[in-house]
Amino acid sequence: MEESRSVPSGSGADPVRSFERWKNRYAKRKDKLRQRRKQKKPEWEVERETIAALEKRFSEINTNEVTRFSDFPISRKTLKGLQEAQYRMVTEIQKQTIGLALQGKDVLGAAKTGSGKTLAFVVPALEILYRQQWTAMDELGVLIISPTRELAYQTFEVLRKVGKNHEFSAGLIIGGKDLKQESSKIHNMNILICTPGRLLQHMDETSYFHASNLQMLILDEADRIL
Ligand SMILES: Nc1ncnc2c1ncn2[C@@H]1O[C@H](COP(=O)(O)OP(=O)(O)OP(=O)(O)O)[C@@H](O)[C@H]1O
């Protein structure tokens, strides 16, 4: 059978050839997209590269030149949390201690009331877990001991605010609540803030409470705790 093809008179364009050209272009574009999708790295790999780039900058931290949180090599998630809570410029205790803590050094800080000590340890606490790609599936990584319930609660609020873009779980163990209820949740926590008495009680009575993989121990107002 003969194929009939209608060409609009006067246009000069062959619709079959135009279609073929369009089909080739479409196939090429689709191929490019497929290649690009193939090259796209998985999220964990991108995150690992970002962490490696941050760690490279640790040795270059110059405390004297730090004025803002963004001068520290810290994660975008922490930085975003800080900015959303309107924290941009560092206070003296933050400037002097965050860099050392990021470098993995033990830090003993002392500064007067209201000088911003809480963020000086909350930021490194978030970063140490971030760097190890800690997830809510992992165990306890950071333990913060506060001398009083009020202080523990305040610290928890700061942690919640600044760490809201991370996926870690955090718990407050301060007594005054049902011990059994606390016990059932304690093993799911990546970061725990507790008062000394309640912590001891859980160490004695909660069989599955363990801190064998702890990455950071923080004693808030150590002089009152020790
Ligand atoms: N970098 C910052 N920029 C602006 N405000 C800040 C900064 N750091 C802390 N603050 C604010 O300063 C106040 C005191 O901070 P914080 O409670 O951490 O001090 P502190 O030294 O722990 O005090 P205390 O010894 O009473 O516990 C808080 O209201 C906090 O939000």
UniProtKB/TrEMBL annotation:
Which top-level enzyme class is recorded in the Swiss-Prot or TrEMBL entry? hydrolase
EC number(s) on record?
A: 3.6.4.13
Catalyses: ATP + H2O = ADP + phosphate + H(+)
Positions of the region Disordered? 1-21
Q: Which domain of life is it from?
A: Eukaryota
DEAD-box RNA helicase Q domain sequence ranges: 67-95
List each copy of the Helicase ATP-binding domain by range.
98-226
Q: Domain comment, in the record's words?
A: The Q motif is unique to and characteristic of the DEAD box family of RNA helicases and controls ATP binding and hydrolysis.
What is this protein called in UniProt? ATP-dependent RNA helicase
Species this protein is from: Thamnophis sirtalis
Organism taxonomic ancestry: Eukaryota, Metazoa, Chordata, Craniata, Vertebrata
